[in-house]
Amino acid sequence: MLDLKHIPIGALIGLVLTALFAFVAIFAPLLAPHGMGEIVGDVWEPMSAQHWLGTDNLGRDLLSRMIFGARTTVFIAVMATALSFSLGAILGFTAAVVGGWFDMVMSRFVDLLMSIPTLIFGLVVLSVLPSTILVLIVVMGILDSTRVYRLSRAVAVDINVMDFVEAAKLRGEGRTWIIFREILPNALSPLISELGLRFIYAVLFLSALSFLGLGVQPPDADWGGMVKENKEGIVFGIPAALIPAAAIAALAISVNLVADWVLNRTTDLKGGRGNG
């Protein structure tokens, strides 16, 4: 059972905020006071009892757009992170275990992809593909899997030469067993830390794509697109664009706090078992 008394204040704040974002994303249709594209007032109305965050550039309720935007942003980021980790970790572990020409080809291919700036690569690919949610998830997941591959391979190469892995090979265990039963459990600590960073990167990457017009397409709401839609209001002192920008920053910081705490906790537990 999780003991809240022993959780650092920063990690506790991160847990609360992350849980809040997840709750809002899951129950968005029940929490939003208005429809995602429903026009309920004048353009850029100020905050009031009727519209807690005011209205946007078309007169839509900004709070409702923020809630539905949370659902879109979190869903795409989670799915893209899951794809990048599944693809990158499996290929990285396989390259380390198989070695030889497979390792060389995969590593050089990953180096080629990483030599191209990710945002520019994403813009080029999405400019010729339809900007659907499925395409966004696949493109973001594949581009981000290169980072996971590099980390997974580096960790797996060190683990692959350890005695317990050599013993498994002598017992006749196959590569699948070695990857999932020997290497993966011992590579969780760095991967857990990287998981939070990759999720944060996915949120920021999606927001950048939407701000540039190649991410989530209107009338669907996501936080990056909302910043783009309301950016002209900043000149007139209207905070409609700053609210989704602040939400992006809050989500990134909260997930980072949780990831750091989980990594430290995992490291401490391993250290405690080692000292015992």
Fill in the keyword field for this structure.
elongated; 0% strand; MetI-like fold
Summary of the model, kept short:
The protein is mainly α and 276 residues long. The chain has helices at residues 9-26, 28-31, 62-98, 100-114, 118-128, 133-160, 163-170, 175-186, 188-211, 223-230, 242-275. The chain contains eleven helices and no strands.
Q: What would CATH call the architecture?
A: Orthogonal Bundle
Order of helices and strands: HHHHHHHHHHH
Assembly category: single chain
Report Rg.
22 Å
Mean pLDDT: 87
Number of domains: 1
Question: Globular, elongated, flat, extended or rod-shaped: what is the shape?
Answer: elongated
> Which percent band covers the strand fraction?
under 5%
Biggest sheet overview: none
CATH superfamily: MetI-like
CATH class: Mainly Alpha
CATH topological fold name: MetI-like fold
Model description:
This protein is mainly α and 276 residues long. It has a single domain, classed as Orthogonal Bundle (MetI-like fold). The chain has eleven helices and no strands. The longest helix has 37 residues. The mean pLDDT is 87.
